[in-house]
Design a protein that fits this description.
This protein is α/β, with parallel strands linked by helices. It has helices spanning 2-7, 18-28, 76-92, 110-122, 127-143, 153-162, 166-178, 190-196, and strands spanning 13-15, 38-42, 47-51, 58-60, 66-71, 96-102, 200-206, 237-240. The protein starts with a helix and ends with a strand.
């Protein structure tokens, strides 16, 4: 799937390795190194931050537009994680496209995946909601998630329900390992403003072939949903989301 997504745009210069991405982004943009996408890799002594844990390449065209590729072979939660990790990067790029590549049998999930992207990138929290989220995260960590160990059980129960979605569950896990820097994108309007003026784009790329039959070669079948849609093995289809 990944090679097909790359071959759909042969004019782009594709950066495949973490070192290539780091070198080019730091030299061609103003983004600081601590805002580059990172994950945590468990070591024997501590969680060690590592840059660009995702295997999908990043492209750049001759006009300076960056293409951040996500190949949707997993779940909505995987996409939540990917978008959260790349939010600071997108906010720092002068012109960018977030491209979600889907196999033909999952193209009916286009709307669902687009909702995830819009929720993560175009739904900043109000000051009041952000303050409540910070309070809830602090209380959750201190109490181990037990509402009976917090001073305001009713407030904690309400916040737990309000922030029960995947967006905030994943954000909590990232906050525990990376600290308050994960909050920076929550109130920023830089991404939604970039989309409004055309500097930012969200696209869907439907890949040209079926891939499900290759799953046994990888030792298992990766499922996103129970979706079975027949599709011609024609050229890849590209659609730019109309958002903003």
């Amino acid at each position: 799937m990944r090679p097909d997504a790359v071959l759909a745009s042969p004019a782009l210069v594709w950066l495949a390795t973490a070192e290539e991405k780091r070198t080019h982004l730091l030299s061609l943009t103003s983004i600081p190194v601590d805002r580059l996408p990172r994950g945590t890799a468990a070591s024997r002594t501590s969680d060690t931050a590592r840059l660009f844990p995702d295997r999908d390449p990043i492209g750049i065209d001759l006009n300076g537009r960056w293409v951040v590729l996500y190949v949707a072979a997993g779940s909505r939660e995987d996409l939540h994680t990917f978008v959260q990790r790349h939010a600071d990067l997108l906010a720092a790029l002068p012109a960018w496209t977030l491209r979600v590549a889907l196999p033909p049998d999952l193209k009916t999930l286009d709307t669902s995946f687009r909702q995830v992207v819009e929720q993560e990138l175009m739904t900043p929290l109000s000051v009041r909601a952000f303050d409540e989220l910070r309070w809830y995260f602090d209380q959750r960590r201190a109490s181990g998630g037990d509402r009976h160990r917090v001073a305001d059980e009713e407030r904690f129960a309400y916040a737990k329900e309000a922030f029960a979605g995947p967006r905030f569950q994943l954000l909590y896990a990232r906050w525990l390992s990376q600290g308050d820097s994960v909050f920076d994108a929550l109130q920023s309007r830089a991404i939604s403003e970039a989309i409004a003026r055309g500097a930012g784009r969200i696209e869907t790329l439907v890949l040209p072939h079926q891939y499900r039959h290759l799953s046994p070669m990888l030792g298992g079948v990766a499922r996103v949903d129970d979706v079975s849609v027949q599709s011609d093995n024609g050229p890849a289809e590209m659609a730019t989301a109309s958002v903003g």
